[in-house]
Amino acid sequence: MSSTRSSKRAALRRDLELFEVWFKHTGMHNAGDELLINNSTRLYSIGQIQSAVGCQTLTHIFLSREMLPKIDELAPQLSHLRLFFFTSRQVSSPHFSRISRLKNLQVLHMSCNSLQHSGLPPDMFYTMKSLREVDVSACNLSTLPESLFHLESLVRLNASFNNFLMAELPDLFSSLVSLKELLLQNCSLKTLPPSAGKIPNLEMLILSENWLMTKQLLEVVCSISSLKKIILQNCRLKKLPVGSESAA
């Protein structure tokens, strides 16, 4: 009897607690990925989301301000996830653990979140082999987790507007064999890890607003044979790599 009452109370709490969410499921029209960023959230309970999805499968979720509990159970086939306006209090280790269980996730956007206290767990990305795009810009990070460099399918990485120190930035970039776009704008970088010059398929590199040393930068950039575009605005360099874009 007591277990039945507990279950009912849990169900009631679940239906009363509301979260700011935008979502898309397999029964909806085929909208572009830009909807994940531009659509407005609405208040839903977990029960309302489950009812709206019905027998379909959740593929896209945009969460604002509060973390949706048990996201891995609610949307095990999730391919696109965007978290916006979170703090380290709202996204804690258990939440990261649930996100890392999303084995089908292809796009993870976490930009503009205050994660300076907890950072990103070192092992967060080991199980997320399907990721093709990761955005952790403006998250107050001081380093990138080593597990991120095991993502062999990663095509785009945006880690701009963080405060990276050379001693703490892993020298593992060459393992990102599918990476085509690397964004490290305004990251307090003075040098790049040597492995950044060994990313085999890199086409675009954005390093604007960093205090980079000319000689070391030239050594790294000139060794990337696949590079098509490099942007170095406001880096105060004495000499520019061929094909780069810069402003004084």
Brief summary:
With 248 residues, this protein is of the alpha/beta class. The chain has helices spanning 2-16, 35-38, 46-53, 71-74, 93-99, 214-221; strands at 19-25, 42-44, 58-64, 80-84, 107-109, 133-135, 156-158, 181-183, 204-206, 229-231, 244-245. The longest helix has 15 residues, at 2-16.
First-residue to last-residue Cα separation: 74 Å
What is the C-alpha radius of gyration, as a whole number of Å? 20 Å
Order of helices and strands: HEHEHEHEHEEEEEHEE
Helix content: 10-25%
**Pairing-aware structural class of the strands and helices?**
alpha/beta
Number of strands: 11
- The overall pLDDT, averaged over residues, is 83
With strands numbered from the N-terminus, the spatial order across the biggest sheet is 2-1-3-4-5-6-7-8-9-10-11
Number of helices: 6
